[in-house]
Write a structure and sequence with these properties.
Chain B: It comes from Hymenobacter cavernae. The complex is a heterodimer of chains A (about 270) and B (about 270). Chain A has about 270 residues and is mainly α. Chain A has 12 helices and no strands. Chain B has 7 helices and 10 strands. In chain B, strand 1 and strand 2 form a beta hairpin. The longest helix of chain B has 17 residues. The chains are: A mainly alpha (about 270), B alpha/beta (about 270). Chains A and B meet through helix 8 and helix 9 of A and helix 4 of B.
């Protein structure tokens, strides 16, 4: 008689097993169920902390039709994209310059500036640049750069002696080895740092758009809804921002998959 | 016994010592690898450095590869015996690193472009892919290669840009019997590619290293007259073996010979004593 050990786990049980890798269909059904339960809770929760789903949808419709939500979102998005693009270039430059000891204190100081509050800083920035748009942009760039430098320098610090030695044994100069191992070798991780820190821009945008209201933006719209206690409008705008963020994340993941196909090969599944 | 004679040195370690934070790791290591010539044979050679785990073998490798300067002493390489600098010696590290962001063929091209013009580099890479049975995997990223394929790729990459000297750090570590046989085949293959090719194995696998090498150096600790252990691993006069002279080199199945087994036993005893 032979005994065979069959490792069978039911799909339900698998969802609660550590490090399990459920089938795509099972996983998607689970996500749909969770979303549905959340929706039910929202609809039938007796305390009514949030405006009802219907109210939020009605408010969303009115914000789109009467207050130009889409245009405001577009205005904020272009500002956010412009800021993150400039901040990324600046942060990469500062981070890569840490190869030279002379620039390390600058990068170190930049990472510590995360702790600065933006209130007050905007005043100095207003003195340095001419228009409201530029102040808005410079505040966002500053805020994003200090976070990006922190993430990017920690990516650079993951470079191992083995990686650098490998490049050197191929006869590469120090700069060429740095370019191959750190710049090219870690570009995918840098994109991930940008993806993670893009959210910072959206949290800051409300503040800066309320300071410089001439250009509008979704942050200003949110501020107004909040000020007049239109909670349905607040939730509607927050949901729009959340959806935009999720879409943005998805685009970044897509970009990473297209441009850096090796990126996921070594990851645990 | 196979007739042979030695020509000029290809690697010289002269009184090499290395300390880290005041702690002596390697002490006064001297060894010279000479170009061996066997009439009517067009084959390079394999030499071995044996040392127990944690004795400082990887440090010695990095010194020989020119990646770190010794605290004292010199390393000279090539027929001109020039001071070693990074890139002069091909160095395959223990975990066979490759550029994970490049495909296999790109990994080899980036190495070949150092020595050849783009067209020649492409031809050389194709020939190495063929010779190391890697052609079907050319478009794969390193993460998709098996351990054996990765090791072959790492050796090919170093061969494409180095000048005949190739250093392997623990090439048999963690491999099963079949894989060890495969690595041995690759090492022999490397020596047959060019008469000047010299493979330096740094390993704690005494049997496999001895079977492949024609010279062997044993890294170990010495004791002073009072019997106290001296700091820093070294190679003393008694621990330098010319296996060719002993009739234990260049035999296809030397491991099966009783003389080989006896020699390995003697070495093991020596290691246990030290």
């Amino acid at each position: 008689m032979t005994f065979r050990f069959v490792n069978y786990t039911s799909p339900m049980k698998e969802l609660f097993s550590p490090n399990a890798n459920p089938q795509r269909l099972v996983f998607m059904s689970m996500v749909a169920t969770q979303a549905f339960v959340l929706l039910l809770l929202w609809m039938f929760y007796p305390l009514q902390l949030f405006p009802s789903l219907g109210e939020v949808f009605r408010s969303l419709g009115s914000l789109i039709a009467d207050q130009g939500l889409i245009q405001e979102l577009w205005a904020s998005m272009t500002t956010a994209l412009q800021s993150i693009a400039i901040a990324t270039v600046l942060a990469l430059l500062i981070s890569y310059l840490t190869a030279l000891p002379f620039f390390r204190p600058i990068a170190y100081a930049a990472t510590k500036m995360r702790y600065l509050t933006l209130t007050g800083l905007t005043f100095f920035m207003a003195l340095m640049v001419s228009s409201g748009h530029e102040v808005k942009l410079s505040v966002l760039i500053f805020g994003a750069t200090v976070y990006l430098v922190t993430g990017m320098t920690s990516v650079i610090l993951t470079t191992t002696q083995e990686e650098m030695d490998h490049a050197r044994t191929l006869g590469m100069s120090e700069w060429r080895a740095f370019y191959e191992v750190v710049v090219l070798g870690k570009l995918d991780e840098m994109l991930e740092v940008v993806r993670q820190n893009f959210a910072i821009i959206w949290t800051m945008i409300t503040l800066v758009e309320t300071l410089y209201q001439s250009e509008g933006g979704i942050g200003l719209l949110l501020y107004k809804q909040n000020r007049y206690l239109h909670l349905d409008g607040v939730v509607a705008i927050q949901l729009v921002i959340l959806a935009t963020g999720a879409l943005q994340d998805y685009v970044f993941v897509l970009l990473r998959r297209v441009f850096f196909p090796y990126s996921w090969l070594g990851a645990a599944k | 016994m196979t007739p042979y004679f030695y020509k000029e040195p290809v690697l010289t370690l002269d009184n090499v010592s290395m300390s880290f934070g005041g702690e002596l790791v390697l002490r006064d290591i001297s060894a010279q690898v000479l170009d061996v010539v066997r009439p009517n044979m067009k084959q390079g050679q394999v030499v071995g450095f044996y040392g127990r785990s944690g004795i400082g073998k990887s440090v010695l490798c990095r010194i020989m590869a020119g990646l770190v300067a010794p605290t004292k002493g010199t390393v000279q390489v090539g027929v001109e015996q020039e001071p070693v600098k990074p890139g002069a010696v091909g160095f395959v590290q223990q975990r066979y690193p490759l550029f994970n962001h490049r495909t296999l063929v790109d990994n080899l091209l980036v190495a070949a472009e150092r020595k050849y013009n783009p067209e020649e580099a492409r031809q050389q890479v194709e020939s190495y892919l063929e010779r190391f049975c890697l052609t079907p995997h050319r478009k794969k990223y390193p993460a998709h290669l098996s351990g054996g394929q990765r090791q072959r790729a790492a050796i090919a990459q170093q061969l494409l840009c180095s000048d005949h000297l190739i250093l392997l750090d623990e090439p048999f570590s963690g491999l099963d019997i079949a894989m060890i046989d495969e690595v041995k085949k690759i090492i022999v293959e490397v020596t047959t590619m060019d008469e000047l090719n010299t493979v330096i194995i740094v390993s704690h696998d005494i049997v496999t290293t001895t079977a492949l090498a024609d010279r062997l150096w044993l890294l170990g600790y010495e004791r002073d007259a009072a019997g106290n252990l001296l700091p820093g691993a070294t190679i003393n006069q008694q621990h330098q073996y010319n296996l060719a002279e002993m009739g234990l080199a260049w035999h296809p199945n030397v491991e099966a010979e009783p003389e080989f087994a006896q020699f390995v036993e003697e070495i093991k005893e020596e290691i246990r004593r030290s």
